[in-house]
Predict the 3D structure of the following.
Amino acid sequence: MAKKRTKYVCTSCGATSPRWLGKCPNCDAWESYVEEMVTSAEPSKARGARSGSTGVRVSTLEEVSVEETSRMATGINEFDRVLGGGVMPGSIVLVGGDPGVGKSTLMAQMCAGLRQMPVLYITGEESLRQVKLRATRIGGDTSNLRLMAETNLELIIDAIRRESPGVVIVDSIQTVYHPQIESAPGSVSQVRECTAMLMRLAKEEGPAVFVVGHVTKEGAIAGPKVMEHMVDTVLQFEGERTHLDRILRTTKNRYGSTNEIGVFEMGEKGLEEVANPSALFLSERSYGASGSAVAATMEGTRPILVETQALVTSTSYGVPQRSATGFDYKRLQMILAVIQKRMGLRLGEHDVFVNIAGGVRVDDPAVDLAVATAIVSSFRDIPVDSSTVLVGEIGLGGEIRGVAHVPLRVAEAAKLGFEGIVVPTVNLKKIGSNPKLNLVGAATVLEGVNAVL
Ligand code: TYD
Ligand code: MG
């Protein structure tokens, strides 16, 4: 028998090295290398030999049939929208999140929603009894559900071939292993190879495969980024254990738009949909206090109103602090530089803290104007007009740049009972007026801020 050799694998990106490295040259992660066994017959290598044979078929575009594969609705609207309109047959979806956030609950509820579709639920973490107790707690019709407590991927794949279910759930990828790979379950090689095999199975046999994965403490899904590259859709389930609201976020989707979010609340009978997230995010808003402004952000295809908060205080000693929660730190620094230069605000001896309330993270530049307004409001200690929403991206010259989907944002503000909205002047020219809302155009950050302060 050959001598066992080991290699070092980056848990972040999957790069390998014969030696341990402190910093990954591929993805720049620190201390991400772990030792793993080298296996002579890695299934992915064996695949290469087979494809050298003559059986490979090449097709023209006309020969490819595109009979509209129909998506399966789960009946959970928030979940269907995040997936891009329901479960896509033959797709592989990674559901990531911290332990206890509700991944297994979401999967169980999906089963109950997919009433006519046979589902095979493979649990490697919990006993069949635990899965049953959860399903009973959630309620609903689960006669379509078949369970299996197994972690050996060879046996799992056999069972899937035999049962040919429409949907397969593997809970979780960290517990399954392929016997031909010598490293432990949860290691980079195991996770990568098992995902690759499940992916091939999904493409060949046609079931939709949901793979549950735990998030490492750094926030990456299941360690290797290679896994994110392989799957069709990556869903990230977020939320604090101490809070009941949960956000399901798409970070990748070959079958729909990314940045889509679904909002849920953990209740007595599983996850409940939050149909009006703007109301939830604005529910604890402080009226009449300085440093708070409402922005209309787009999360995927849906407009959502969020409260941006800022606190500006004089620095007691040393270098002024800047901190951003739920908002890009570099973008905050850019906005601070713009309001110093273009509005003459002296922030050099002030600490600035910015927070997007409700635990959401926004990447939409259209919230810039609200952030800038909240900062100026806190600095001057004047409250922002609480009945007005602000929308606009700030450019380096202090100009307000146009943003996409302004009519949707305006409609959301009107729906939530706001009386006015500040939008970029370029957008205002195109949309004209709205009977329910007072539309104000702003061409510069100074104009935008002055409209509400
Ligand atoms: P779970 O889905 O097991 O989380 P994960 O699979 O992500 O580790 O459940 C998460 C938590 O939710 C658990 O602490 C119990 C709680 N919970 C409820 O509050 N209500 C419910 O109806 C269910 C099923 C779970
Ligand atoms: Mg679980």
